[in-house]
Design goal:
The complex is a heterodimer of chains A (447) and B (355). Chain A has 447 residues and is α/β, with parallel strands linked by helices. Helix content of chain A is 42%, strand content 14%. Chain A has two domains: 230 residues, Rossmann fold (3-Layer(aba) Sandwich); 162 residues, Response regulator (Rossmann fold), CATH 3.40.50.2300. Chain A is globular and about 60 Å long. Chain B has a domain of 241 residues. In chain B, the strands form two sheets. Chain B has a two-stranded antiparallel sheet with strand order 1-4. Chains A and B meet through helix 1, strand 2, helix 3 and helix 4 of A and helix 3, helix 12, helix 13 and helix 14 of B. Chain A: Keywords: Signal.
Chain lengths: 447, 355
């Protein structure tokens, strides 16, 4: 027993020493910028995590290989969150200070539970929480949440876009009266997030909304689908997490004979990894995309050439380049890098590392015009948008796609907007103001 | 020879009843306490305080609760996370709805609320045993989380169903920095550990063990099974509730009911098994093993391989190693980590001789 104990003890000591090492204050090299990558590569959500964070890392590698951010090289540290709120908090604290002693400037949990777990720490720690199409929706109000962004749209705009699409298929909003929509969701904050907007729109349109929840991890959905068969809805909006749950949703729909082309999947279930396991049962399912998949975008081709050509890619399977999650990760990293450039320009720190507050200013100044997107090689990949002091959400526009059994067909030529964008904005501001008054937060004045 | 029992004479009842009869044990404990209270808050980094020590202490309390029920009273239960949720949401609502409520009172009351729920869900233990009881207690896990999810009142009608834990305020002073919160958690943990150790060796603990070893015999000897089992359930749930409230208020800070899922209950169960059934100190080892080992493995692999190896592989490898270690422990030391510590003490007593 003794040798084993000794070895265990010494191994523990080594680990403890290593754990302590990054905390020791180091001297930051001027031309380095530290980024945090809280990835989720194992467990039921691994398809999402490997693709998304793989895209982020690939784009950062690409930037480094093509001269850095005005000469500043990006460095990063990774931490495994397992898509678990408790582990995300640990990762947040661990990644807060990088190996080179720099503080992290941006955190992206790729998950609503994780985002909620850290959202209240942002202002104090001066870190930007970049929620890429997930997370707390009313954070889109920059007057209340100055450190939190929703640059790729949020769940309220997403559900509005979906209902808009349904209305188009049904032949107009007036035809929606009396229709029945089932919101089938995982029973978590993430699954319920679209409901405030959805309930309001359903009420306004005279739509009968039925909410059915699935307990996590959502692999068991039989009783819920039997309930759907009884309800006979016209549409189902599916809010699942993890390819297991998402694929099960389609196979169960096939079993009870619910038409797949009356199902709309959430952005976090609308990827190749979610569709393929369901096989033929997936054909016809609609999804919405805040970042359009595909390999034909010039930026994707360049990354493929520069990064994967040199064998430096992060994906274990290079075939996944151009898939939904990977492209989404690339788009997220593009926003980080553009924010870094903005921050350097605003604060006169060209070619130098920036701090959290400077990065925040840079992120808030993001302005993706058509010209900018063309210059980046991303035309058509994301919708143009501009952030501002009060407006922390992006375009709120999505493309509608349909799975054809092999890949996604893009149904809408343009990005589809919510029927009434001012209405969604009003909901966001009302919710944020309520939160601010309940929690004694100050509402910033925006110029 | 570092450790001697010989020469320890007890000259009074007070000495006989000491929690730690050996001087070496007391010195060691004193040292640990001095380091924990006086050194760590000032020297440890925020990462260590807020991401390692605080969750570890909170989960140790929960494991202690599970250990009282499972290790001492022999009632296999699977509802620890449910009681944690009860404690966390009780504490949130108490502070939210009762303006003058001081934090220590809120923690105490949330523990008592969890204990009351524990008594209700302990009732089946009078009829069913073993695995069947585990299944019956599963109901508490799902029921508590379902109730909190279903009724918006518990979450103050937050649309997303997530609560933001209030700041800890004791006597008008806010305890918000990692070191301050660590001290709050540490104080409560030390007090409750001291209480648990005394309960475990006192009449309550002996009653539990009698019921565990053979409940018919215990009943014949005049023990009330109803009282003993429900007492164990109540105290266990109290510890889980306090641990859950502290976990929510000092570590997560914003909580959704889904965070207290069945997985967490299983992890608490493993903490007790790995740490050592029927040992108070084992709760700390077990919580450390289950909670912190994956973190250290993650840090270790990232430090060792950096970006040279695909992080997906190392992340998967961490889980493999973690699983293998659990199996190895169960094979080579089924009595848990607490037994390893006992073995070490034995060795120190005999040193430098082998036998």
């Amino acid at each position: 027993m003794r040798p084993m104990f000794q070895r265990a003890a010494s191994a523990l000591l080594v680990t403890a020493a290593l754990a302590a090492a990054p905390i020791a204050p180091g001297i930051a090299l001027a031309e380095e910028q530290y980024m945090a990558v809280p990835s989720s590569r194992v467990g039921p959500y691994s398809a999402m995590g490997t693709g998304y964070y793989g895209g982020i890392i690939d784009y950062m590698t690409y930037v480094n290989k093509t001269g850095g951010v005005n000469g500043v090289q990006l460095t990063w540290a990774e931490c495994e969150t397992e898509y678990n709120a408790a582990r995300t908090v640990e990762c947040y604290q661990r990644l807060l200070t990088g190996p080179n002693g720099q503080k992290m400037v941006v955190f992206d949990t790729l998950g609503t539970p994780g985002a909620y777990a850290v959202i209240n720490r942002m202002a104090e720690d001066e870190v930007v929480l970049a929620q890429f199409g997930y997370g707390r929706t009313d954070a889109a109000d920059g007057r209340v949440w100055s450190w939190v962004f929703n640059a790729a749209g949020h769940y309220w705009s997403q559900i509005a876009v979906k209902m808009n699409f349904m209305a188009q298929v049904e032949g107009g909003v007036e035809n929606m009266r009396g229709k029945k929509i089932v919101h089938l969701h995982i029973d978590s904050a993430y699954g319920r997030e679209p409901l405030p907007a959805m309930r309001q729109i359903a009420e306004d349109w005279g739509v009968n909304l039925v909410e059915i929840s699935i307990p996590p991890p959502g692999l068991e959905q039989k009783s819920q689908w039997l309930q759907i068969r009884r309800e006979r809805p016209d549409w189902v909006t599916f809010w699942g997490a993890g390819s297991g749950m998402n694929a099960t949703g389609m196979t169960e729909a096939a079993r009870v004979g619910f038409p797949r082309d009356r199902m709309m999947y959430v952005t976090f279930g609308g990827a190749e990894e979610d569709m393929v396991p369901a096989g033929d049962a997936a054909v016809g399912t609609y999804v919405v995309a805040n970042v359009v998949p595909g390999k034909d975008f010039p930026l994707v081709q360049q990354i493929n050439e520069v990064v994967y050509g040199a064998g430096a890619g992060n994906l274990a399977n290079p075939e996944r380049v151009g898939t939904v999650y990977w492209n989404r990760g690339v788009a997220a990293a593009v926003m980080w890098v553009e924010a870094l450039k903005n921050a350097q320009a605003i604060h006169g720190k060209d070619g130098q590392a920036v701090t959290g507050p400077e990065f925040r200013d840079g992120y808030e100044a993001l302005d993706f015009t058509e010209e900018k997107l063309a210059e980046l090689g991303m035309t058509g990949m994301i919708a143009p948008f501009k952030l501002s002091c009060e407006k922390h959400d992006g375009s709120g526009r999505f493309k509608i796609m349909q799975w054809n059994g092999e890949k996604f067909d893009i149904i809408s030529d343009d990005f589809v907007a919510a029927p009434d964008e001012g209405f969604i904005r009003g909901l966001v501001e009302a919710s944020a103001e309520k939160f601010a008054s309940e929690n004694g937060m100050t509402v910033r004045d925006c110029p | 020879m570092y450790y001697r029992q010989a020469g320890t004479y007890r000259t009074g009842y007070a000495q006989d009843m000491r929690l730690m009869p050996l001087k070496e044990d007391r010195i060691l404990l004193g040292l640990v306490l001095v380091i924990a209270f006086a050194v760590l808050p000032f020297t440890a980094s925020d990462y260590w305080l807020s991401a390692i020590l605080i969750p570890w202490l909170c989960m140790s309390l929960v494991a202690m609760g599970q250990n009282i029920l499972m290790g001492y009273a022999g009632q296999l239960s699977l509802g620890a996370a449910g009681f944690m949720a009860a404690g966390a949401f009780a504490c949130y609502n108490l502070i939210l709805r009762v303006e003058w409520m001081p934090f220590p009172v809120a923690i105490l009351l949330s523990g008592l609320i969890a204990a009351a729920i524990g008594i209700v869900f302990g009732l089946p233990s009078l009829r069913v045993r073993g695995l069947y009881l585990a299944v019956a207690t599963l109901a508490s896990q799902f029921f508590i989380v379902w109730v909190i999810d279903k009724f918006g009142w518990f979450k103050n009608y937050d649309t997303s169903g997530i609560i933001t834990a209030q700041d800890i305020v004791i006597f008008g002073k806010a305890f918000t920095s990692p070191a301050e919160m660590y001290l709050v958690v540490l104080t409560i943990t030390v007090l409750l550990t001291w209480a648990a150790m005394n309960m475990a060796r006192g009449s309550a603990g002996r009653n539990w063990q009698a019921v565990r070893d053979m409940d018919v015999a215990a009943e014949v000897m005049g023990l009330s099974l109803l009282r003993t089992k429900l007492q164990a359930f109540a105290i266990s749930s109290f510890y889980c509730g306090v641990g859950g409230a502290l976990f929510a208020f000092t570590y997560l800070k914003s909580v959704e009911p889904a965070a207290f899922d069945i997985n967490l209950s299983f992890r608490v169960l493993f903490m007790v098994l790995i740490g050592g059934l029927g040992t108070i100190i084992g709760s700390f080892y077990g919580a450390g093993f289950i909670l912190l080992l994956p973190v250290f493995l993650n840090i270790f692999f990232h430090a060792l391989f950096g970006k040279a190896v695909d992080a997906s592989i190392t992340s998967a490898l961490e889980q493999v190693i973690f699983g293998v270690l659990i199996i190895l422990f169960m094979i080579y030391e089924p009595l848990g980590l607490a037994k390893l510590w006992q073995n070490l003490q034995e060795r120190m007593r005999r040193w430098p001789f082998k036998f």
